[in-house]
């Protein structure tokens, strides 16, 4: 019955074991999402509770995650798998998902070689690629610190890949010393003198290790051999061996490159990986290497001791001198023996001291219990941990806590660590910046909720007359909408009062006023009145100018053209017109003169003998048809 493959992160299928080291195991894997092969490096379970191994493993993922170079094995992803132990406890096992490289390590290539060495030009070409990868990582601020044949792969296509940045450190990390156990400081056959002395490392330390790597590719052995204590001494004090003294086929140019790379004083070494790579490229192309490397080789060869075989006659009488011939041979041997023991003792004293220091280091630094520093300031936490001999690495993250306060630590309080171990502190950078949401048009309560949802508070609230928003709606915010502010900041709001400012429109044309009042959310009512003013002119308004509520009805009295006026004279009646109702048909109602004899107007006239009224068409002469005299007139 087939079983489902082990799955990490819901994505990576764990396959067969393809490599094993002292810290981790490497499996062939499959990325189910992207459908490609990957290499999965998983920390061994027996190291999952060791803070030093956890820190080293996590550092590898962090170091390589930002590196992108064709000669560096790429890291795709990392995570942790929750594993339940037999006792029921749960532990987190970290893993790293890397580029799968189909090829061999340099260690495997050396083991498979009949001579145990590589061709000088092939070796120089491989190491040149290693140096180019290191030059890139150095530019990115990372020192590898563990260059060796097992950490360099060559693909079937001939590509070179540098891997295992497990003990890599940032160049700027001035505390990155090598005073830790051998499992952490690197491999003894390849460590630089400054690493062996426990001093800080830099990019020139990787240059030294790469020189050791090239030496081994050319000769089949490392520059120095022996036990770890002896190796440490040799890296610091021993003369630099020439690869040509082990393999006569090594050209002098590569002797010079290796001697320059293995110089004890780092200030006299290649200044960086690029300079060494340039000399190897020059060698491969048949060009001269740098004069400084050639000069370094000359200095070394000129100081090498010359061994001369002793003459046979010197045993009995070195000078053929009769006086010395009488000296017993035993006395010479005893003197030489005493001097030999004296020199041996002088040499053994520093070796013994170095061995004692190395033994002390192998026992591991003292254990300490990690204290709780969460909730304290960064300065206080750093001082507390430093006093215990722990290294401190801090990173800032946004937090609601006060800026500068420690919000998390790794390892946690109560964990066991060793002097020199690294404690990571997460320090609050203060509240994160947020964007002011769009609250324009919302009611005050709605705007308050929207601001609180993103961690902001309502500050001052003021009212303002506006026709843009209805009563109680937000007109504007300060800081303005979409502006970035610190979390917890206050935002002032301007709320519409519901009032608008009404102007005095008397004298203006009503057609120019209507749209303006509609924009103010006011109603318009019009009344007309005859006026000599131009038609449409506003003669009066109600209410008068001032602040009014939105929706108020404003009444305007508007001028209209007056009606036409007709003037009628007494002679305007036509001859055929009928008498009006007010006119009398009797002789007594006949109009009288308006002259000075007006008194006769109140007297009746005598009937006309003819019995007919005067003709209505008779011209008006300004006086009555008849003159009526007052009584007593002549």
UniProtKB/TrEMBL annotation:
Keyword Ligase found: no
Gene behind the chain: pknB
Reactions performed catalytically: L-threonyl-[protein] + ATP = O-phospho-L-threonyl-[protein] + ADP + H(+); L-seryl-[protein] + ATP = O-phospho-L-seryl-[protein] + ADP + H(+)
Domain PASTA: 364-429, 430-497, 498-560
GO molecular function: kinase activity
Transmembrane segments annotated in the record for this chain: 339-359
Biased composition (Low complexity): 567-577, 591-634
Binding site for ATP: 41
Bias (Acidic residues) ranges: 578-590
Alphabetized Pfam families for the sequence: PASTA, Pkinase
Keywords: ATP-binding, Kinase, Membrane, Nucleotide-binding, Repeat, Serine/threonine-protein kinase, Transferase, Transmembrane, Transmembrane helix
Superkingdom as given in the UniProt entry: Bacteria
Domain Protein kinase: 12-284
EC nos: 2.7.11.1
Stretch list, region Disordered: 382-417, 562-634
Organism of provenance: Janibacter alittae
Protein name per the record: non-specific serine/threonine protein kinase
SMART domains: PASTA, S_TKc
């Amino acid at each position: 019955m087939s079983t489902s493959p082990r799955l990490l992160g819901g994505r990576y299928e764990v396959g067969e074991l393809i490599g094993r080291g002292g810290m981790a195991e490497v499996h062939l894997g499959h990325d189910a999402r992207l459908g490609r092969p990957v290499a999965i490096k998983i920390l061994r379970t027996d190291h999952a509770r060791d803070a030093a191994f956890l820190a080293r493993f996590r550092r590898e993922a962090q170091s390589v995650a930002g590196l992108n170079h064709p000669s560096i094995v790429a890291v795709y992803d990392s995570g942790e798998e929750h594993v339940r132990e037999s006792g029921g406890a749960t532990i987190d096992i970290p893993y790293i998902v890397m580029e799968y490289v189909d090829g061999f390590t340099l260690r495997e290539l050396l083991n498979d070689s009949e001579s145990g060495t590589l061709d000088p030009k092939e070796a120089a070409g491989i190491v040149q690629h290693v140096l180019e990868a290191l030059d890139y990582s150095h530019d990115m601020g990372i020192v590898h610190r563990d260059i060796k044949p097992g950490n360099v792969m060559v693909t079937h296509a001939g590509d070179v890949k540098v891997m295992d940045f497990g003990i890599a450190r940032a160049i700027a990390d001035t505390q990155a010393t090598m005073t830790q156990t051998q499992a952490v400081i690197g491999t003894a056959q390849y460590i630089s003198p400054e690493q062996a002395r426990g001093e800080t490392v830099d990019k020139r330390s990787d240059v030294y290790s790469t020189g050791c790597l090239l030496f081994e590719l050319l000769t089949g052995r490392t520059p120095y051999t022996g036990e770890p204590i002896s190796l440490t001494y040799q890296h610091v004090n021993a003369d630099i061996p020439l690869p040509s003294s082990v393999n006569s086929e090594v050209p002098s140019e590569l002797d010079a490159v290796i001697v320059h790379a293995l110089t004890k004083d780092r200030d006299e070494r290649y200044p960086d990986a690029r300079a060494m790579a340039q000399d190897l490229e020059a060698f491969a192309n048949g060009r001269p290497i740098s004069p400084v490397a050639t000069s370094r080789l000359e200095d070394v060869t000129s100081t090498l001791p010359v061994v001369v075989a002793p003459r046979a006659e010197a045993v009995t009488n070195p000078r053929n001198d009769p006086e010395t011939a009488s000296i017993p041979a035993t006395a010479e041997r005893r003197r030489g023996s005493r001097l030999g023991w004296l020199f041996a003792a002088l040499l053994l004293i520093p070796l013994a001291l170095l061995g004692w220091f190395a033994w002390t280091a192998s026992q591991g630094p003292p254990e300490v219990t990690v204290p709780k520093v969460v909730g304290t300031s960064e300065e206080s936490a750093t001082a507390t941990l430093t006093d215990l001999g722990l290294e401190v690495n801090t990173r800032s993250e946004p937090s609601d806590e006060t800026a500068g306060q420690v919000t998390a630590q790794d390892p946690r309080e109560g964990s066991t660590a060793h002097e020199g171990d690294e404690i990571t502190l997460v320090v609050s950078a203060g509240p994160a910046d947020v964007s002011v949401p769009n609250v324009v048009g919302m009611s005050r309560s709605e705007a308050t909720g929207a601001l609180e949802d993103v961690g902001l508070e309502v500050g001052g609230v003021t009212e303002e007359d506006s026709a843009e928003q209805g009563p109680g709606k937000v007109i504007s915010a300060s800081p303005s909408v979409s502006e970035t502010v610190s979390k917890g900041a206050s935002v002032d709001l301007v709320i519409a009062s519901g009032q608008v400012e009404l102007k005095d429109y008397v004298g203006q044309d009503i057609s120019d006023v209507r749209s303006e009042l509609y924009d103010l959310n006011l109603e318009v009512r019009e009344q007309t009145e005859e006026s000599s003013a131009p038609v449409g002119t506003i003669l009066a308004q109600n209410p008068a100018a001032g602040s009014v509520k939105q929706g108020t009805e404003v009444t305007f009295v508007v001028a209209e053209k007056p009606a036409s006026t007709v003037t009628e004279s007494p002679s305007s009646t036509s001859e055929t017109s009928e008498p009006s109702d007010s006119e009398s048909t009797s002789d007594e109602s006949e109009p009288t003169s308006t002259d000075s004899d007006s008194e006769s107007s109140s007297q009746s006239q005598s009937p006309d003998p003819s019995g007919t009224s005067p003709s209505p068409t008779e011209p008006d002469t300004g006086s009555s048809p008849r003159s009526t005299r007052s009584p007593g007139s002549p």
